[in-house]
Amino acid sequence: MTNLSNPIIEKSFAIIDNIIGKHHLTEEEYNIVRRIIHTTADFDFLHLLQCSPNVIKSSIELLKAKTPIVTDVSMIKEGIRNMVKKTHDNDIIVAVKQAKEAKEGQTLTETGLLQCCEKYPNAIYVIGNAPTALIALCKQYELKKINPSLVIGAPVGFVSVLESKAYLAKLDIPQIQIIGNKGGSTVASAIVNALLIMSSN
């Protein structure tokens, strides 16, 4: 694996490995979880990662192919921008920045996300903040208006979060998600960065 890390991160990883010891995850899954734990200092994430079959391998190929990455909010773009630049230089599009104002009955992020669905129907979608955007994305898939290459579903909070993740889980979309109420932009960024590092082989 190409070394895209630094000594402090490697030392942190060693501490995390020592605390966790034996675990149930594959090597690739653990690479993702370890980076999330490094970002959050929350070991609960060892049990919260849920991946559809073969999704990590396919995600790596998507990143190598420079598939565009659509994020719900700017914080994720900031969190992955450096690693994207060092690896495959994929385009990063922020959904909330695509809409000047929210349409009636929608959040601004949801309105922007729907615009992205029209422009980038096969993109990688990374949702770390807005469950409304994840629900809108799932609806667009059911309407056969989009066919995302990958969805990373990690919104955080209490309103509509569990519902949005359950919706995603029942769909036949390649997906990586954080089950439960936990998640967030930093977690979503950590997932993408872990995939980028694995794709740099």
Question: In short, what is this structure?
Answer:
The protein is α/β, with parallel strands linked by helices and 201 residues long. It has 8 helices and 6 strands; from the N terminus they run ααβαβαβαβαβαβα.
Describe this protein's structure.
This protein has 201 residues and is α/β, with parallel strands linked by helices. The protein has one domain: Rossmann fold, CATH 3.40.50.10230. Helix content is 49%, strand content 10%. The chain is built from 8 helices and 6 strands. It has helices at 7-20, 27-40, 55-64, 74-86, 108-119, 131-142, 161-169, 185-198, and strands at residues 49-51, 69-71, 92-94, 124-127, 150-153, 175-178. Strands 1-6-5-4-2-3 form a 6-stranded mixed sheet, with helices on both faces. α5 runs parallel beside α6 (131-142) and α6 runs parallel beside α7 (161-169). The radius of gyration is 16 Å and the shape is globular.
Topology, pairings included?
Blueprint: H1 7-20, H2 27-40, E1 49-51, H3 55-64, E2 69-71, H4 74-86, E3 92-94, H5 108-119, E4 124-127, H6 131-142, E5 150-153, H7 161-169, E6 175-178, H8 185-198
Parallel strand pairs: 2-3, 2-4, 4-5, 5-6
Antiparallel strand pairs: 1-6
Helix pairs in contact: 1-2, 2-8, 4-8, 5-6, 6-7
SSE pattern, N- to C-terminal = HHEHEHEHEHEHEH
CATH class: Alpha Beta
The figure for the number of domains is 1
Estimate percent helicity. Answer: 40-55%
> How is the largest sheet built, in terms of strand order?
1-6-5-4-2-3
CA(first)-CA(last) distance = 5 Å
Rounded average pLDDT: 96
Give me the CATH fold name: Rossmann fold
How does the overall form come out from the CA principal axes? globular
Strand content: 5-15%
Q: Provide the gyration radius in Å.
A: 16 Å
CATH superfamily: Cobalamin biosynthesis CobH/CbiC, precorrin-8X methylmutase
Number of strands: 6
